[in-house]
Design a protein that fits this description.
single chain; 381 residues; alpha+beta; 6-stranded antiparallel beta barrel; 5-stranded antiparallel β-sheet; 8 helices
């Protein structure tokens, strides 16, 4: 009795593609990096919410009663004994937080604040935040940056009803501006090995490469572009230097000492050829996503999935080997060298023969564990 063998032979041609074909594109420096300085700064404080319909702290919750007594005293309405406030259930002690924009903010600007109950409060619905000071979250700087107050809106969705927002409730009393420049002295503590290039009396800006693009290749490309395009203009062929995979420092020319913004713009708009990316495979099982990044190479191999035997093979000269099976269906994987890296073409063919995505993920994991897929696997859940 003859046994039938179902076999799909996936043919792999031997090819090499220059980096520009798959891995490299043009981009502006501002697309892959930003100047050090802008970042989200948080303000925080503690305050009182009043006007609650019997859902406040109450019941001798001293943490709320004491600031309430202090607030009444401040407004010339002192309380003789704290016990007089023990049944006050329309008040709650809350934490207050706000985020300053990355580019900074000016005195008089209004920002939203987040409010959360700290004690026994059951609901902040209908409450109003009394005026409360906010400081920098590090608490090193004791300066009051602004005051927050106003009616609360419950955060949606929030079944607990103890988190709320005050729209435009924070009014800044101080400027919160961002500095992009740093002296060589300041940078020497961060980049000691480049002490001979960093000069104490000069000013610098630092380009911080986005995490998705960081690498020695990217840092080198950015520094080379700045030196080539701007260095000759200012007579400084080493205007920029890559410090590590994430940071590139650029010396500020003296002509821009009083007005650095135009120079920063010149850097931002420079176009670079992105270096070839390292091969990565991103897998998200929950959303059933497989994403390939860079040139994902795959070595010759044979495997079986769902009863189908799949062979990826080539001879020493890169020629396709004839299949040696009883029943064969031939599927060429990238025979014209057009569709991209081999793994992407293999996945396309697995999709065409309706191999479920979970099985495709399993194929990738098994081949990767064997060392036949040459890329890093990153799981996103």
């Amino acid at each position: 009795m003859r046994h039938s063998t179902s076999c799909i032979v996936v043919l792999l041609t031997c090819f090499w593609a220059p980096p520009a074909v798959f891995g490299q594109v043009n981009a502006r420096i501002s697309d892959v990096a930003k100047f050090k300085g802008p970042r989200v700064n948080r303000l925080q404080g503690i305050g009182l919410v009043v006007g609650l319909a019997g859902t406040g702290d109450g019941d001798n919750y001293r943490q709320a009663i004491q600031p309430l007594a202090s607030w009444l005293k401040h407004y010339a309405n002192p309380v003789g004994q704290l016990e007089d406030l023990k049944n006050t259930r329309n008040v709650a002690l809350v934490t207050i937080q706000a985020e300053l924009p990355e580019g900074g903010a000016r005195e008089g600007d209004r920002l939203d604040v987040q409010v959360s109950a700290m004690g026994a409060c059951k609901s902040l619905a209908g409450g109003r935040l009394l005026s409360a000071p906010l400081q920098h979250h590090s608490l090193i700087d004791k300066t009051i940056i602004g005051f927050a107050m106003g009616p609360l809106e419950l955060t949606v969705p929030d079944d607990s009803k103890v988190n709320a927002i005050v729209r435009g409730g924070l009014i800044l009393e101080e400027d919160a501006m961002v500095s992009y420049l740093a002296s060589g002295t300041d940078l020497l503590s961060d980049f000691r090995i480049h002490g001979s290039w960093l000069k104490a009396g000069q000013m610098y800006v630092t380009l911080v490469i986005h995490s998705t693009h960081k690498g020695f290749g990217m840092a080198s490309v950015i520094a080379h572009a700045v030196n080539q395009e701007l260095g000759e203009t200012f007579g400084d062929t080493q205007l920029a230097m890559s410090m590590d995979p994430k940071n590139v420092v650029v010396r500020l020319p003296e002509v821009y000492a009083d007005d650095p913004v135009p120079f920063l713009y010149e850097i931002e708009k420079l176009t670079i050829l992105l270096p070839e990316k390292s091969a990565r495979i991103v897998i998200n099982r929950a959303k059933q996503i497989i994403a390939l990044d860079g040139d994902v190479a795959i070595s010759p191999t044979i495997f079986t999935v769902k009863g189908l035997t799949i062979s990826i093979a080539r001879d020493a000269e890169g020629q396709i080997q004839p299949p040696m099976t009883d029943e064969q269906s031939f599927i060429g994987v990238d025979p014209g060298n057009q569709s991209g890296p081999v793994l992407s073409a293999l996945l396309q063919q697995l999709n065409q023969i309706k191999v479920p995505i979970n099985d495709r993920i399993a194929v990738i994991e098994v081949l990767h564990s064997m060392g036949n897929i040459h890329a890093e696997i990153i799981y996103k859940e």
